[in-house]
Amino acid sequence: MTRALSSDLRRRAIAAVSCGMTRRAAAERFGVSASSVIRWVAEWRASGREHALRQGGDRRSHRIEVWSGVLLAAIEARADISLIELAEKLAEEHGVRFAPSTIWRCLDRHDMTVKKNGARQRADTARRRSKARGLVRQPA
């Protein structure tokens, strides 16, 4: 991913346009694209801000984190509760709605993993393995 251009370059391009230079001429002078200078000036005129906003990052997980204690308590009370049931529980008891995927990401951040037990993960493996041995042919 590319880095943002320097704030100084952005400020100088905006200053040049505010002193009467065209946006395209300022872009050519500072060696950036015309569309960048056009966007910078539009943003500066709309908000007065000369610097770029922060990019990326998590902006919404704090909404579900407020309810993480409720989620963890519900799982402790009933270990086999599904994500859909957790979503319904939050909606009914607390009036907040979250998608099951959002609940899963919250639980994942808290290192809550739901694994099948060993017996179910390896159901009938030994029997299948013995049948497969008979199918293996020796090299000719």
What is the strand and helix layout of this fold?
Layout: H1 7-18, H2 23-30, H3 34-47, H4 61-65, H5 68-77, H6 83-94, H7 100-109, H8 118-121, H9 125-135
Describe this structure as you would to a colleague:
- The chain has 140 residues and is mostly helical.
- Among the domains are: 7-47; 61-114.
- The chain is built from nine helices and no strands.
- Helix 1 runs antiparallel to helix 2 and helix 2 packs across helix 3.
- It is elongated.
- The model has no long low-confidence stretch (mean pLDDT 85).
- It holds the Pfam family HTH_23.
- InterPro entries: Homeodomain-like_sf, WH-like_DNA-bd_sf.
- Residues 116-140 are annotated as: Disordered.
- This is Transposase.
Strand pairing plus helix content: what structural class?
A: mainly alpha
How many distinct beta strands?
0
Low-confidence stretches: none
Distance between the termini: 54 Å
Strand content: under 5%
Instruction: Spell the H/E element sequence.
Output: HHHHHHHHH
Q: Provide the helix percentage.
A: 55-70%
Radius of gyration: 29 Å
Q: Mean pLDDT, nearest integer?
A: 85
From the spread of the alpha carbons, the general shape counts as: elongated
Biggest pleated sheet: none
Helix segment tally: 9
